[in-house]
């Protein structure tokens, strides 16, 4: 179980190697914003003691938490020291790399995100398969003229 302030470097070797290899192929993996069992933004915040039911990415304590993260040894020389709080923002990604595509990978299409001009692709995952939801997502996505990905 993760513990605040305790880093097991061996556990990061595989992930660090994947990030390193991705970098050689021009890919820049960003933090996972899902609240899933395998970790991500909310897992880190929960581990740091933040109440995620009232999560506010502009909270100075949250920003400080992300800007103080460890840069892993293997990729340190290849990874710019960009605050992770900024990497979570599509407009910042577009500012750095305007030709890169940004995916809003929330679970189902979030209507509030449809008006964000820096999001290029919307997606959804279906467990179990739901044809009606898929058709609805496609219809909504077409209304804003973006690409759509149905995962898994």
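^ structure tokens above, recovered residues below v
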């Amino acid at each position: 179980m993760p513990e605040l302030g305790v880093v097991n470097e061996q556990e990061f070797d595989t992930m660090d190697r994947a990030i390193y290899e991705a970098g050689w192929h021009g890919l820049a993996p960003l933090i996972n914003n899902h609240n899933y069992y395998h970790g991500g933004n909310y897992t880190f915040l929960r581990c740091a003691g933040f109440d995620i039911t009232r999560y506010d990415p502009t909270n100075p304590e949250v920003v400080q938490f992300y800007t103080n993260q460890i840069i892993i040894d293997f990729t340190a020389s290849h990874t710019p020291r960009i605050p992770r709080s900024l990497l979570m923002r599509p407009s910042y990604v577009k500012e750095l790399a305007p030709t890169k595509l940004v995916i809003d990978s929330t679970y189902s299409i979030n209507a509030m995100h449809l008006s964000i001009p820096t999001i290029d692709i919307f997606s959804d995952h279906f467990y179990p398969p739901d044809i009606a939801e898929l058709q609805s997502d496609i219809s909504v996505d077409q209304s804003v003229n973006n690409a759509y990905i149905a995962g898994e």
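The chain has a mean pLDDT of 73.
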